[in-house]
Structures are given as structure tokens and as C-alpha cells.
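Shipment paperwork, digital attachment
Item: protein structure file
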Amino acid sequence: MQGWEGIVARLDGPFHFRIIVQPSVASILAIIGGIKDAKLGKPPYFWALIVDHGHRIELIKEGWKSIFKVFILAMVLEGAYQLKIGHLDYRGYVFVAAFVFAVVPYLILRGPINRIVQPLSKKRSLGSPNS
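Attachment content:
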């Protein structure tokens, strides 16, 4: 429980803007990825990650490539936060915070965006004059 209290404690104080910025950037990247997946007819990302054993490694690489910079930024900002408040003994929070604020929103949103956009892009392609 102490771990979640540490995350919640970061909602206020120095660098609190990162609690909004990091999930927002991760969400934007998830939306972009979900739209690309829908246009290519790919299955929802997180679902494919779980059930598609044959392509799991390439899916992880693709997702990591997309979210890597946000994850690193999340770690840097968490490290700066820890320096500011003088609690460098919580280094594990660097990874936990980066995962919670960058990776989780990405994983949650990319698949549903694909599911929302895929029927729309199919309708658009059916109604195009070139079909």
C-alpha cells in the first residue's frame, strides 16, 4: 500500500504537471497507434499482445518504440521530483511512476481506439468512388 500512497502523494507539490502531461502524451500516441492499426486492419493492440503468441515480440517492440520517449521522460521527471523533495531512497518509484503514467494509458487506449475507428474506416472505404 505504501507504493500507491507514494504515487498519490505525487499529485500535489513540485512537478505535479507531469501527472497530466505524461498520460496525455501517452494517450495521444495510443490514439495515433490505434488509428494506424485500424487502417491496416490489425486487431486491438493489447488483445493481440495477450493472445497472439507468434507476434508478441514484434508487438512489444512496436509498442515500446512508440512509448519509449514518454517512458524515459516520465523516469527523468520522477527522478527530478525525488531530488527536489529529497527522497532518493525511493528509486523503485521511478519505474513505477513511469509505468503508471506512461505505459498504462497507452495500453488501455490503443485497442479501444482501433475498435472505434475500424468500422468508420470500413464505411469510408465502401463509400469511396474508387471501390
